[in-house]
Design brief:
The chain has 30 helices and 23 strands. By secondary structure, it is an alpha+beta fold. Helix 4 runs parallel beside helix 6 and helix 14 (339-350) crosses helix 15 (354-361). The relative contact order is 0.07.
């Protein structure tokens, strides 16, 4: 931009000042006065030094350029300074119009050094003039511009950044006379310049006159940080080195457009990720997240169903369900100093030890500690009123057994999770348990229901009742009599079964020792088994009725068939003996049964062979689990007759070498008492339906095993066994006709893996002429005696007597018929 203003008053011999240039007066003139002769004197003193440096600079490309300009003379130098072409080539074109140089910040340091060298050449040229005149074409005002002190840092800095007068001139701001020369007019000071002389070279006729070119060149050099050793006459000290000053460090800033583009790309990428995730969550997977959110809010609480009741045949409860509470606590809200007091209170109410309660309260890492189940509601209410912090009570149900150990292993028990774990509780669990209900409600973070939200409630379905065939009173009598006899005989265990002859319903099934259902968790696991239905044993002589049925049914013998019986018999490689030694004697088959002769039984069994005997054993239910739904009923052990050894074909006939359960043996006598018809034993009398109405169970399957005639003949033979001539005299009941058979067998101990001890048993029915009840008693490993007629028959008598009275079964009033018990009678 060209300046348009000019000072109002100006001398005729002065050049127009450069607008904004720093004036030398008054500080600069004072310095020149202090330095002696002024700028010219100082220039003459330094002339020799600059000449020497010039000669050194001539060796550089810039120096060679100056040499060519000097070879052409003053005209060549003037052309070079004015930017005109010379004989050696084109000169620079410096000026506000048409300049070709890059900005000073981008120029090469060598170009700046060349500009400084040229400035020094001009200074040397002025110094060579002895009269101190300015060479032709040079404006005295130029010296004022270029002869600044090279060591004036303020001037150099302002020039470098365009704040000095030279810098502003280089940026296009020039004096008014320069503007007028560009317009083709002479300056207003005179037609010939400031001194009125002839026009200078490159004057008004050329916009690239010498004065303007030099001025712009100096301004450009100042902006590029011109050398301190240039031709200026500033009056400062001589620079310590002739090297050109290093250009100022210029920091180049990156392109903002590039940074903006990179930032926009990064932001677009990040926003695209968020947008994609948003589309996935609210569009593609919205249903999934909606379901998860609903699951977090929706809490399901189970409503337990009330378990059904187990009763005896008369409706007396054997297992009931009562309302209870489940007590839990949040240990984190119980203060540490108060924990001993809280533990003491909990232990006193819940029946636990203080150490156990203190250990649960010390579990500060959890917010739920179960303290007790099946707590009485009254006790739970007292605890809640005591103000124990963090204590909660949940409504549940608990299982109660009013009769304690009455038929304990038969009834079974319920575990902590409400599932049956044994006996009827396990086999009928689905029927007894019912179906739990649930309540679904939306809750907040604190577990409280959110108002005005939907709540779904499914009502629980209570379990159904189960009625057993057990008679509570007869069961109690059987357990009492058995327990007393087991204790008296020193036996390890005992079993009693009472069965209805006509229906095969089990009236009593007792075991000793028995499981206490109210303390089942403290009882040994061996008591969880219903031994009357699961434990097997070798029956001994009670099994002889099957051999008798097989021979009588085959017609090979009759009750009056006489056998010559010795007290021993050889069977394969073994010699088998009777229970009591006796001389060889004639004995009817009825007498042999009454006396329980092993030899006579083997002699009868040989008449039918092993296969027929095996088939009869299978027909009576040996080797197969009985039906009727008795929990844990076993099948016993009956090897195939083809695998029998030579002696086993004899021992099986009197009940050794074959294993049965007490339930299976009771079923054999029920078949004989029922006229030869076997009925699957029943333990469940019926259940209730959804409306609570009792539905009886279907009757047991009936199977004819032997003819009625054979069954009656065996009955008379068994009645003789209870007479004075038989081994079961202690089983006789006054006023009632009783039929039965004693049994004594070697006992196989599974833990020892060998035979050890005895099994004493007695099985019979009454009344003999019109059977109603069957009773079987078994004692394992008795120490005080071992014959069945001695220790098992009395149990039979006690239980049968009580059962007959309880069932109000009257005596028949008849007497046993006279039968032939001995040969020759």
């Amino acid at each position: 931009m060209l300046a348009t203003a000019r000072p109002a008053a100006q001398g005729a011999g002065d050049l127009p000042p450069v607008r904004g240039a720093r004036d030398d007066a008054p500080q600069a003139r004072a310095r020149r006065q202090d330095d002696g002769d002024g700028p010219r004197a100082r220039s003459r003193q330094e002339a020799s030094g600059r000449a020497a440096r010039a000669r050194q600079d001539d060796d550089t490309p810039a120096g060679r350029g100056r040499t060519r300009a000097e070879a052409e003379g003053p005209a060549g130098r003037d052309r070079a300074d004015a930017g005109e072409p010379g004989v050696h080539g084109r000169a620079r074109q410096d000026g506000p119009q048409g300049t070709r140089r890059a900005p000073s910040q981008d120029r090469d340091p060598r170009d700046r050094a060349t500009a400084q060298d040229r400035s020094r050449d001009r200074e040397r040229e002025r110094d060579r003039d002895p009269r101190g005149r300015v060479p032709q074409g040079r404006d005295p005002q130029d010296r004022g511009v270029h002869d600044r002190d090279p060591h004036d840092r303020g001037s150099q800095d302002r020039a470098a950044h365009g704040r000095s007068p030279q810098g502003r001139a280089a940026q296009g701001r020039m004096p008014q006379d320069g503007q007028e020369r560009l317009r083709g007019r002479a300056p207003k000071d005179g037609p010939g310049g400031p001194r009125g002389g002839a026009p200078r070279r490159g004057g008004p006729s050329s916009p690239f006159g010498r004065g303007l070119g030099a001025l712009l060149e100096r301004a450009a050099a100042g902006r590029d940080g011109g050398g301190r050793d240039g031709g200026g006459r500033g009056g400062g000290r001589r620079p310590p080195s002739s090297r050109p000053a290093k250009p100022p460090l210029v920091l180049r800033l990156g392109s903002p457009r590039r940074r903006i583009n990179v930032g926009l790309i990064g932001m677009t990428f990040i926003l695209s990720i968020f947008a994609g995730r948003l589309i996935q969550m609210q569009g593609l997977d919205s249903k999934v997240y909606e379901a998860r959110a609903a699951d977090q809010r929706l809490q399901t609480q189970q409503i337990p169903a009330k378990r059904g009741t187990i009763t005896d045949v008369n409706g007396h409860p054997l297992a009931v369900t009562a309302e209870a509470r489940e007590i839990a606590i949040d240990p984190t809200v119980v203060p540490v100093p108060a924990r001993p007091v809280v533990a003491q209170a909990l232990a006193a109410h819940l029946g636990r030890t203080e150490q156990e309660m203190a250990a649960k309260l010390a579990q500060a890492s959890t917010r739920y500690q179960l303290l007790a189940r099946d707590v009485d509601p009254v006790v739970a209410s007292r605890l809640l009123k005591a103000g124990v912090p963090g204590l909660t009570a949940k409504k549940t149900y608990r299982r109660l057994y009013p009769a304690g150990d009455l038929a304990g292993s038969l009834i079974g028990f319920v575990g902590d999770e409400g599932k049956g774990l044994g006996g009827i509780e396990a086999t009928k669990n689905s029927l007894l348990a019912g179906r739990d209900g649930e309540q679904r409600a939306e809750t907040g973070r604190d577990g409280q229901p959110i108002p005005m939200t939907s709540t779904q409630r499914t009502a629980p379905v209570d379990g159904r009742d189960v009625r057993l065939t057990i008679d509570r009173d007869i069961q109690w009598a059987a357990q009492r009599a058995l327990t007393e006899q087991v204790k008296e005989a020193g036996a390890s265990s005992g079993t009693v079964i009472v069965m209805d002859v006509r229906t095969a319903q089990i009236i009593a099934m007792a075991n000793t020792p028995e499981l206490d259902l109210n303390n089942w968790s403290k009882s040994p696991a061996s008591l969880y088994v219903n031994r009357a239905a699961a434990d097997v044993f070798e029956p001994g002589s009670t099994n002889k009725v099957i051999t008798a049925a097989a021979t009588l049914e085959a017609g090979v013998v009759s009750p009056d068939t006489v056998f010559q019986v010795k007290d021993n018999i050889k069977c394969a490689d073994r010699v088998l003996r009777d229970a009591h030694p006796h001389p060889a004697e004639a004995m009817t088959f009825r007498e042999a049964m009454a006396q329980s002769s092993n030899v006579a039984t083997i002699m009868a069994a040989r008449k039918i062979g092993s296969e027929r005997l095996y088939r009869m054993l299978r027909a009576f239910g040996f080797g197969a689990a009985p039906g009727g739904g008795v929990p844990g009923a076993g099948a016993g052990l009956l090897p195939d007759y083809k695998t029998w050894s030579g002696s086993q074909s004899c021992t099986v006939a009197y009940g050794q070498g074959v294993s049965v359960t007490a339930l299976q043996m009771a079923s054999v006598y029920q078949t004989i008492a029922n006229g030869g018809v076997k009925i699957d034993p029943q333990i469940v009398a019926g259940t209730t339906d959804a409306s609570g109405r009792f539905v009886p169970s279907a009757p047991g399957r009936k199977t004819r095993v032997v003819s009625e005639r054979t069954a009656k003949e065996i009955g008379t033979m068994l009645e003789a066994a209870v007479s004075a001539q038989g081994t079961g005299e202690l089983a006789a009941i006054p006023g009632y006709r009783v039929a039965g058979k004693t049994g004594t067998a070697d006992r196989y101990d599974q833990q020892l893996g060998r035979y050890d001890g005895y099994t004493a048993s007695f099985a019979g029915f009454s009344p003999a002429d019109a059977p109603r009840l069957v009773v079987l008693s078994v004692l394992q490993n008795p120490k005080n005696g071992h014959f069945g007629g001695q220790i098992a028959a009395p149990v039979f008598k006690d239980v049968m007597t009580f059962a007959i009275k309880s069932r109000k079964i009257p005596p028949t009033g008849s007497t046993a018929p006279a039968v032939r018990t001995r040969a020759g009678q």
